[in-house]
Structures are given as structure tokens and as C-alpha cells.
Structure to design on (907 residues):
């Protein structure tokens, strides 16, 4: 065999490299470039993940004494042509201007994905004791109210390659909202799963969406609702709490199932203990966001703080603002109270949208909601939505968008 | 409020970070603007459940070690950016399905690599070894060209560096055929085309050989805490040097002065000015944010002449068992429907080529104890998306991709994946269009093929993108795509700006 050599190739081709390039460029048109949305991938990205959505309240539906649903449509006058499509179980982060504060709240979409194609979303809001946002919404939103929302967000969705084909939904109180969306998505044929929904509430009068759930169950044999009432017995309902025995009673026999849980913290605490006795694999238990973390000083790991409140210095681009931050409020809440438009979405430590740099100071981040990336710890980044001050703090915060 | 800076860098991708770190470290008042809330562009990480996923990096080339630092190591080290590097010494396992298929694992180190090639294709050793001799010849030629400050003597080139001229102006396939490398051996080595997104019959040989050589000689490196570690480490250099990084700060306009020079940008509704603007943003987008009258005709023609580089579909899996329990023993596996790279490229959205990585092989504790992660990569273009794909069909589309490749890999290897998926996330060119904002979701800027190959870019770099006050760095720039090339362009452009600033003073 002859020794390998390159003689067969012309080295003179080397001299053509530059002239060829110049010729190709010379032959091209000098026309303006297409806008980004002319490309399929970019057009889809913009449709699925708009930077924000300008919506307006079309209709208000009274559900119970303290729960209302709001039908939202696109506010074309402000630049949103139609509501973005989503996956059942996702939420919108709503921006609210209350007095001098700018706050956000995540609300699960209770409408189905198909309804968004028809031009509308539904959010369902329950008045919570001592709640700021829920009172504001229930007291001030009416037909025509303009609402600034994020794109649909969140991971509390059915994933066919991950989840079992049968979902046992555990809803507590207002945690029912994403399940209305999921039940309808299943009935619409947009999700290929079965849903058995155990809905925990105090009384039948507190249970929302009952007519709609009955209607879905009547037309679709893949959905079943069981009301679980804690305070009073009622016909066709279970009495008590969502226990392991109750889950076993309604879960499909002899087949794997996924448990989706959405409700208040107290419900997670209770249900998680019950689930432990069922021996389900971790992958088959999924929680919706935990919500705002409260009472950090009750944690065993809480190191204690030397004062009741501290100075919080916020640097946003080149603007510096100083304020007080109480030890039992998160850095995010302190900023919002002081009218700083800081970024936030899930408010549960997990989405990372509020990612900010701790320039100086000591903080407490409860381990159960510490959703930071590993390198964040090394380089001093925090998620202000679940970070509490233990000293004076200097924080570098990006501006909220939009 | 300060509205004037020495340097504004637009985009905190790999190159933007290095450029800003370089100018800040050299005393220039530097502002880095990033539209997202995190630095890095592709070089980041994301969390699902108890897993933190590496979104894009497969293998970082040209790193080297403290004892034998290569380009990337030197850039980070020179800036004072500390990285916990982890190394992978196997190159890859290549599986070609069907009749005439093969299953070959290649190891790094020139002699070991040639041994494993000889084992796979008896009789090919000498011709394969000649590839590495050619790399040496190319390096000698490049050293000479550098010594001559880019103006080599033509006769010396012809007499002494003919093989470099051949390698630099022909495709990988042409060069390998001329060296007498048998077809099967060519196919195995060319498996790496998947990392450059250009099939080897139009990929510049010098470019490919350079990449092959760095992987074979040094192996590949990965940061311990995902690419987010790389990006935060570079951001720290900027901040420690007195520079600023503004996140959630999207540039919406490039400002030009009367003489046609870029003099600033509009960000967050504010006009900010600088002596030099460095764009990590692809020229297409910069031109669309510019007064059209200010764009030189040749720059516009160049943009119009170019094709966008490849994008990918990726499937990230968090598994509720270990890689040992799954029976996985490789970091990188390429799976191909046909041995021929051109066919792999043409069938890319059918049965062309995909890559499966298991990071736990390189970084055992990259996921919680008792778990592991898998990362599927399928090279496709944004323009490969189905024409009739609508938002309401997108989730199904993503799951069909995931299902197809997971199912294929299960059937091929007998490994049972689906029952163990605890977390899943699927990205497509739509995802990259969303996060990077590049046309068609290209992750590699412009296609590095044919006339727009690496050599032609480098040769013509000084004549292109001539707007005063504006420089470009990134995967779309003169060194082509990939983390290491982006870092190199950030380094080069940053240093040029520093030199000009010092000259002006």
C-alpha cells in the first residue's frame, strides 16, 4: 500500500477560497432582512411564550360566597391578539398594582386549553383570610378591568412519557382550579389520561365547579369526581379527609397511577404522610407549587436573627433604593411593599425568575423551597421569593419585565 | 445616572461574557446587557424536580489541564475565572444500525485512538495516523502565518506548507479519501460531524481536524456544576473588575452617529452610549435593530448570502435509578441509521443521527444518589419544523420526538428507560428560538459549509462587518460555533477593543 499523501488534491484551491467567498457575497441581494417572526420557530416561540399578555375581564361568575371566576380575553388594543395556548395545569402570573405596591400572584388556569383557542381564559379566585391579592381582585375586578399576565407557566402538567396513564388528583380548597382544566382537557381529547379526582373541602356549599364536573363526567368516562367533605356528610360524598385508605379505595386496582396534588400547605403536609404509607414511587407523586413560605422562625433550622427588621438596599441596574425588611417577610415582599417592580412568578422558590445577586448580608433560605442551581450557592445568588433577611442586605435585582 | 461607558457588550452568551470580562479586567468601564435573567445563553442549567440539567454542553474542547493548558483553559485562567473541570477520556461510542452496521468505541490519545480504529477497521492504522500528522503540518503552517502577521510569503507557503493548503481548502471527505482512509474508517471518524452540524462532504477538513485533534489529544472537559458554573464564574470577573451586568435588559435598538458609527444602544427605554459596542447578538438581529441606511451594502449582502446553522431537538430525562442499574456505561453514544454522514444529515428528522449522553459517567454525583440523567440530542434545523405545526400541536410534537428516540434507543440497546423517567423536558428549535432569540432557533449561527467555511471566514474577517464602533463575537462569528470557538472570539474581540482603547488614550 502506498504511503498516505494528499497529492491528489490541488493546493492551488487554497488560493480560490477568498475569491469564492467574495463572489458569493457579491452575488447576494442587498435586501432588508426578514423580521424574526418570519421564521417558523420564532413565530411559534412568540405564540407559545409571549413576553406578557394584555388581557381584560369579559365576565365575572359568582361561584360561592367567597369564590369568583373571571373570564379573560385578549386586549388587542394593548397588543395581545389572542391568549397563548397552554397545557392543563399551568398558571398565569398576574401583576397587580395595589396602592404603591406592585405585586404578582400565580393563579392556575381553570379553563381548558381548548377554551384558549376560542379566545378565553378563566381564573378562579378564592378570598383568603388576610390575603392581599385575593381581596383586591374580588373587590375591584369587574367587566372591562385590564389585567397584565405572564405567558402560561409551570410544570404541573400531565406528561405521558413520565406519568402513569391514570391520574389520581388530590385537590384541597382552591387547589381545585388546575383540575377543572385537566378534566376538560381529557374530555376534549387533548390529554390521553384518566382522572379520578378527590376534592377535599369543608362542605358541599364550598365545592366549586360541581355542575361542570358532573357534565364532564356524564360525557366522558375517563373522569370521575369524589367530593371529600370534612365538616358535614352529604349524599354521594365521602366524609372526612383525603386519607391513604380513601386514595386506595378510588385508585385503579392493580395498575400504576400518578398522584397529582394541589392545595394549601396544610394539605400537602397531611397528604404526604398518608401517601408515604402507600409506597408509591417518587416519580408518581407530583405537587403543584407550594406557595409563599411563611413563619420561617418556626423552622428547626432557622438560625435566629439579631433584630426584628433590617435595612434592605436594592440595586436595580444603576438605581439604588433603601428600605426596611422584616425578618418574617421575604426580600421579594419587602421590595413589593416598597413599590419596587422586582421580577417574580412562582413565588415558591422553584422557577428562578426572581434570581438576584446577594452583594452582602446573611439570609435564611428554607431548604424545602430552595430551588437554586448549584453554582448559585457558590456565587451568592438567591431567589428573593423565598429568602429571609438575617442582617442588613444589599441585593442586585434585575428589573421586572415588561 | 451614568449614560456613557467605554464598552457596552450586548448579550451575555459565552462570547459576550468573555469579551466583557476582558474589557472590564483591563480597566475599561464595561456594561454587559442581557435580555434574560441569567447569563450564559446556551451555557446555563435548569432544574426539574430534584435534577439540575445541563442544557447544551456535550464536551468542551480545547480545555486541557493545569499542567497542559489549552486555549479555553488559558482564557479562563487569564481572566481569573475558576472552574472545577471534570474530564472524559473516552471519545465516543458509535452505533450504526442495520445491515453493515457497527458498534465501535473510540478512546482518546493519538496512539490509542489509532489502535481502536485499527481494531474496528483492520489495515487503516497508517492512514488514520496520517490525519494527525496532517494536523501537525497545519499547526506549523498556522504558526508561520501568525509569525508573518497574516501575510505569509507565497513561495514559502507553496513549497513548505502545501499539505496545509490542501487541507484548508478541501472537505473532510476529500482529504480522508486522498489519505487512503477506508470508507468504514472514514464513517467512524466522521461521526463527529454531529457536533458541527455540517456533513463531512462540505465541512472544511482543517476545521474538522482541529476539533478531532483537541478531543483526541486532550479528551473533553465538563464543568462540575453544569454550564451555569462557567457563566457565573465569568460574570464574577466582570463584577469584581468594576464592570456591570444588567439582566432582564433587552437591547431594542443600536444607535448610530452621523458618521455611521455605532455609538450606543437603547435598553429598558434608555439611551446608553459607548465608545465601542460589542455584539454577541447575531448580525441578522442587530441589523434589524438598526437604521437600515447605516448598514454597509456588503454587510447586508453577506447576511443575505448566509444560511443559518443547525439547531437541535433535545430530550432531558431525570431517571429514578442509577446508570449502572440501567446498564449504561458510556458518556457519549452516537446512534445512526446509516454509516454515511451525508445520509445521516439528509435523514436527520427520520432515522439519521442522534446522541445520547449520561453525565453521571463523567460526574457521578451530577444528580442525587440513586438517580442519573440522560440527554438525547437530535440535530435538526428550525426549517425542519413541520409546516402545519401550531401552538396547540406543540406538546404532542415534542412528545412524539421524545417517544421516538427513547423507543429507538430502548430497542437498540435493550435498556429499559421509560419506566424510570421521573422528570422529562423536551426542547426543539422553538425552545432555542425562545431563549436565544436567533432566527430559526439556530444554535450555531451561520452554517459553516461550502464558501462560508472556517478558513474563508478567518481569511476575510477584517473586510467584513465594517461598521465603526461595532464588533461581533459568538458562534455566528469568524471562528464558528461551539463553546470553545465562542470563547475564543470573545477573547479576541475583547482584546482588540482594549488595544484600541489604550491606543486612543
Amino acid at each position: 500500500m502506498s504511503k498516505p499523501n494528499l497529492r491528489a488534491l490541488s493546493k492551488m484551491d487554497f488560493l480560490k477560497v477568498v475569491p469564492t467567498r467574495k463572489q458569493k457575497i457579491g452575488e447576494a441581494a442587498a435586501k432588508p432582512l426578514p423580521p424574526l417572526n418570519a421564521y417558523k420557530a420564532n413565530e411559534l416561540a412568540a405564540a407559545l411564550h409571549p413576553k406578557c399578555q394584555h388581557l381584560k375581564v369579559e365576565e365575572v361568575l359568582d361561584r360561592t360566597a367567597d369564590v369568583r371566576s373571571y373570564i379573560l380575553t385578549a386586549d388587542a388594543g394593548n397588543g395581545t391578539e389572542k391568549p397563548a395556548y397552554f397545557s392543563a395545569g399551568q398558571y398565569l402570573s398576574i401583576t397587580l398594582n395595589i396602592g404603591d405596591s406592585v405585586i404578582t400572584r400565580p393563579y392556575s388556569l381553570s379553563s381548558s386549553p381548548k377554551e384558549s383557542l376560542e379566545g378565553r381564559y378563566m381564573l378562579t379566585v378564592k378570598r383568603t383570610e388576610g390575603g392581599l391579592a385575593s381581596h383586591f381582585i374580588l373587590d375591584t375586578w369587574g367587566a372591562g378591568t385590564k389585567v397584565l399576565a405572564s405567558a402560561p407557566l409551570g410544570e404541573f402538567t400531565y406528561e405521558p412519557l413520565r406519568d402513569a396513564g391514570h391520574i389520581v388528583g388530590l385537590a384541597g380548597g382552591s387547589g381545585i382550579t388546575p383540575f377543572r382544566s385537566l378534566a376538560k382537557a381529557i374530555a376534549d381529547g387533548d390529554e390521553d389520561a384518566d382522572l379520578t379526582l378527590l376534592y377535599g373541602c369543608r362542605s358541599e356549599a364550598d365545592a366549586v365547579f360541581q355542575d361542570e364536573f358532573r357534565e364532564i363526567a356524564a360525557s366522558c368516562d375517563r373522569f370521575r369526581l369524589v367530593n371529600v367533605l370534612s365538616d358535614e356528610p352529604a349524599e354521594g360524598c365521602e366524609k372526612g379527609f383525603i386519607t391513604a385508605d380513601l386514595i386506595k379505595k378510588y385508585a385503579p386496582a392493580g395498575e400504576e397511577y400518578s398522584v397529582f396534588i394541589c392545595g394549601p400547605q396544610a394539605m400537602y403536609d397531611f397528604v404526604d404522610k398518608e401517601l408515604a404509607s402507600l409506597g408509591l414511587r417518587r416519580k408518581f407523586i407530583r405537587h403543584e407549587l407550594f406557595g409563599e413560605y411563611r413563619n420561617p422562625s418556626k423552622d428547626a433550622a432557622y438560625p435566629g436573627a439579631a433584630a426584628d427588621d433590617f435595612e434592605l438596599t436594592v440595586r436595580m441596574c444603576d438605581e439604588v433604593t433603601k428600605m426596611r425588611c422584616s425578618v418574617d417577610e421575604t426580600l421579594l415582599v419587602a421590595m413589593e411593599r416598597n413599590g419596587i417592580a422586582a421580577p417574580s412568578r412562582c413565588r415558591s422558590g422553584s422557577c428562578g425568575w426572581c434570581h438576584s445577586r446577594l452583594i452582602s448580608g446573611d439570609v435564611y433560605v428554607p431548604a424545602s423551597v430552595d430551588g437554586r442551581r448549584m453554582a448559585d450557592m457558590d456565587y451568592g445568588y438567591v431567589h428573593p421569593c423565598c429568602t429571609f433577611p438575617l442582617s442588613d442586605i444589599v441585593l442586585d435585582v434585575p428589573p421586572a419585565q415588561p | 445616572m451614568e449614560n456613557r461607558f467605554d464598552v457596552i457588550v450586548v448579550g451575555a452568551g459565552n462570547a459576550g461574557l468573555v469579551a466583557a470580562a476582558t474589557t472590564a479586567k483591563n480597566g475599561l468601564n464595561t456594561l454587559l446587557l442581557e435580555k434574560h435573567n441569567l447569563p450564559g445563553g446556551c451555557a446555563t442549567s435548569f432544574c426539574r424536580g430534584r435534577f439540575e440539567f445541563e442544557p447544551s454542553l456535550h464536551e468542551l474542547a480545547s480545555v486541557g489541564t493545569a499542567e497542559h493548558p489549552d486555549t479555553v483553559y488559558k482564557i479562563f485562567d487569564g481572566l481569573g475565572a475558576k472552574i472545577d473541570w471534570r474530564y472524559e477520556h473516552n471519545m465516543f461510542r458509535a452505533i450504526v444500525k442495520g445491515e453493515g452496521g457497527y458498534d465501535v468505541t473510540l478512546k482518546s490519545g493519538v496512539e490509542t485512538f489509532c489502535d481502536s480504529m485499527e481494531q474496528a477497521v483492520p489495515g487503516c492504522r497508517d492512514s488514520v495516523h496520517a490525519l494527525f500528522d496532517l494536523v501537525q503540518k497545519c499547526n506549523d503552517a498556522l504558526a508561520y502565518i501568525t509569525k508573518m502577521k497574516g501575510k505569509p510569503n507565497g513561495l514559502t507557503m507553496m513549497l513548505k506548507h502545501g499539505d496545509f493548503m490542501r487541507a484548508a481548502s478541501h472537505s473532510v471527505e476529500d482529504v480522508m479519501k486522498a489519505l487512503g482512509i477506508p470508507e468504514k474508517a472514514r464513517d467512524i471518524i466522521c461521526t463527529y460531524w454531529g457536533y458541527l452540524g455540517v456533513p463531512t462532504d462540505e465541512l472544511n477538513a482543517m476545521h474538522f481536524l482541529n476539533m478531532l485533534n483537541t478531543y483526541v489529544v486532550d479528551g473533553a472537559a465538563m464543568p462540575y456544576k453544569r454550564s451555569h458554573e462557567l457563566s457565573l464564574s465569568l460574570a464574577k470577573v466582570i463584577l469584581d473588575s468594576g464592570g456591570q451586568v444588567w439582566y432582564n435588559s433587552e437591547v431594542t435598538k443600536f444607535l448610530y452617529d452621523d458618521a455611521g458609527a455605532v455609538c450606543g444602544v437603547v435598553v429598558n427605554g434608555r439611551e446608553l452610549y459607548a465608545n465601542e459596542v460589542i455584539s454577541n447578538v447575531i448580525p441578522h438581529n442587530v441589523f434589524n435593530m438598526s437604521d437600515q441606511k447605516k448598514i454597509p451594502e456588503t454587510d447586508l449582502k453577506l447576511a443575505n448570502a448566509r444560511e443559518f446553522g443547525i439547531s437541535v431537538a433535545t430530550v432531558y430525562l431525570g431517571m429514578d435509578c442509577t446508570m449502572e442499574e440501567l446498564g449504561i456505561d458510556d458518556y457519549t453514544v452516537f446512534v445512526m441509521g446509516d454509516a454515511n454522514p451525508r445520509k445521516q444529515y439528509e435523514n436527520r428528522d427520520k432515522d439519521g443521527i442522534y446522541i445520547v449522553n449520561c453525565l453521571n459517567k463523567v460526574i457521578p454525583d451530577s444528580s442525587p444518589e440513586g438517580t442519573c440523567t440522560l440527554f438525547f440530542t437530535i440535530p435538526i434545523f428550525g426549517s425542519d419544523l413541520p409546516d402545519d405545526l401550531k401552538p396547540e400541536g406543540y406538546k404532542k410534537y415534542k412528545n412524539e420526538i421524545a417517544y421516538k428516540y427513547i423507543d429507538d434507543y430502548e430497542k437498540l440497546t435493550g435498556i429499559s428507560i421509560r419506566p424510570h423517567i421521573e422528570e422529562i423536558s423536551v426542547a426543539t428549535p422553538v425552545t432555542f428560538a425562545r431563549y436565544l432569540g436567533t432566527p430559526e432557533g439556530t444554535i450555531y449561527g451561520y452554517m459553516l459549509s461550502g464558501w462560508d467555511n472556517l478558513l474563508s471566514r478567518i481569511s476575510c474577517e477584517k473586510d467584513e462587518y465594517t461598521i465603526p464602533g461595532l464588533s461581533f463575537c459568538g458562534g455566528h462569528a469568524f471562528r464558528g460555533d461551539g463553546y470553545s470557538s465562542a470563547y475564543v472570539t470573545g477573547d479576541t474581540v475583547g482584546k482588540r477593543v482594549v488595544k484600541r482603547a489604550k491606543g486612543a488614550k
